[in-house]
Design a protein that fits this description.
By secondary structure, the protein is an alpha+beta fold. Helices cover 25% and strands 21% of the residues.
Length: 268
């Protein structure tokens, strides 16, 4: 599933290509992706609207189209493409957006878990926690968020109600960078470990954004290229291989129905 770095990469690539352009036409081929409006209304009401900005909170993208706000969640395999010729699966292109200058934007989703909403006000995402890139999370605020929970720290990081945007890949990478075992209860973290974790969250996410995200399975950038961050992962999907940092064998365990990767040699 695209996580915060992949969605932020998409946002940064879309803006210079489409910001300021006016929507001329929309074709919605898979109506059930749209969750709160009729397909015909969605397509018609956005015609003639100027795309002023694209916002992101966690894994959600909000297109600011004057007084309307279509929101996209990429699901497991959703991507945006600027050129249909770059699609490896054109049969899974579900939305065509044509702009007044003739440029096109395509939403592709092989597994069809993506979602689209349409709002008349900027959505505030009340069920989501703070965004670790867009929102200021001070160390003191982070300590308050952790509290004295008995939850495993890996599961805490992946809970979107606490911090929006971190998924399975980056939770494992963040904890490895912070030298913390994923099963450690939140309440058992020391002040020093809490500070290390706080620093690792922004560090790992920023580095992944710089490398245009992690490409596994369907994820591609807007130009149809893969990200590069998969070549720099320290533990994710590296079970039974030596840890780059200490040489111990990377382990794999299932937590919350998701594979978790860690090194017992340098995570405590």
């Amino acid at each position: 599933m695209p996580e915060l770095p992949e969605v932020e990469t998409v946002r940064r690539q879309l803006l210079p290509l489409y910001q300021g352009k006016t929507i001329d036409n929309i074709v919605l081929r898979t109506p059930y992706l749209l969750k709160n409006a009729e397909p015909e209304l969605f397509c018609n009401i956005l015609r003639g609207k100027r795309l002023n900005d694209i916002l992101r909170h966690g894994k959600f993208l909000t297109f600011v189209c004057e007084d309307l706000y279509p929101v996209f969640h990429l699901g497991m395999s959703g991507i945006f493409l600027s050129d249909r010729a770059n699609s490896l699966y054109p049969q899974h292109i579900h939305v065509d957006i044509e702009f007044d200058d003739g440029s096109m934007l395509y939403f592709q989703d092989m597994r069809k878990f993506g979602k689209i909403w349409l709002y008349e006000d900027v959505p505030d995402f009340p069920t989501l926690g703070l965004d670790p890139i867009n929102d200021t999370i001070t160390l003191d605020r982070f300590r308050e968020m952790l509290g004295q929970r008995g939850t495993a720290i890996k599961l805490f990081l992946m809970d979107q109600a606490h911090i929006a945007g971190i998924g399975n890949i980056y939770a494992s990478e963040i904890l490895h960078d912070a030298h913390i075992l994923p099963k450690r209860p939140v309440k058992d973290l020391t002040n020093k470990e809490t500070e290390a974790l706080w620093q690792s969250i922004t560090k790992i996410l920023d580095l992944a954004i710089e490398k245009f995200g992690t490409s596994y399975s369907a994820y591609r950038t807007v130009s149809g290229e893969t990200g590069d961050n998969q070549n720099f992962l320290q533990v994710y999907q590296r079970n039974d291989k030596p840890c780059y940092r200490c040489g111990e064998v990377v382990q794999k365990v299932v937590m919350g129905s998701r594979s978790t990767f860690y090194c017992e040699g340098c995570q405590n």
